[in-house]
Design brief:
Blueprint lengths: L2 H20 L4 E7 L3 E9 L3 H11 L8 H13 L21 H20 L2
Antiparallel strand pairs: 1-2
Helix pairs in contact: 1-2, 3-4
């Protein structure tokens, strides 16, 4: 495992532990992405840090390319399926690299994501 990805996974696990101390009922989902995006897991309890770590080490690997736009699109599918009465969704973008698509990301954030999150916030 490359050091940057290992550090990113360690930061994720530390975040989960801190978040768990605030609200152990929270759940998280993980999206792996390079040139495409793939849901690694969905709605696992934030308290299950060993399970989360195992998913990370078994499913994430550096390949180059960090296309955030694809990650945002996959995150939208998760947001659309969340029962908002049960828990507040948290989206964490975990990367070991810089955006390969900065102009696309800015366009997507300005046009598509703002509509998604503005709608979500007011429901």
């Amino acid at each position: 495992m490359n050091n940057m990805l290992g550090a990113a996974i360690e930061a994720l696990i530390n975040y989960c532990k801190k978040r768990n101390s605030l609200n152990p009922k929270d759940k998280c989902s993980l999206i792996g992405y390079q040139s495409n995006a793939k849901k690694i897991f969905e709605n696992i309890s934030i308290s299950e840090t060993e399970t989360i770590k195992n998913y990370c080490f078994n499913n994430l690997y550096p390949m180059g390319g960090t296309y955030f736009t694809n990650a945002f699109k996959e995150a939208k599918t998760i947001i659309d399926n969340i029962n908002r009465n049960e828990h507040i969704p948290v989206i964490i973008l975990l990367t070991d690299g810089m955006a390969a698509d900065p102009e696309d990301v800015m366009n997507y954030l300005q046009n598509d994501v703002s509509l998604i999150f503005n709608n979500f916030i007011y429901l």
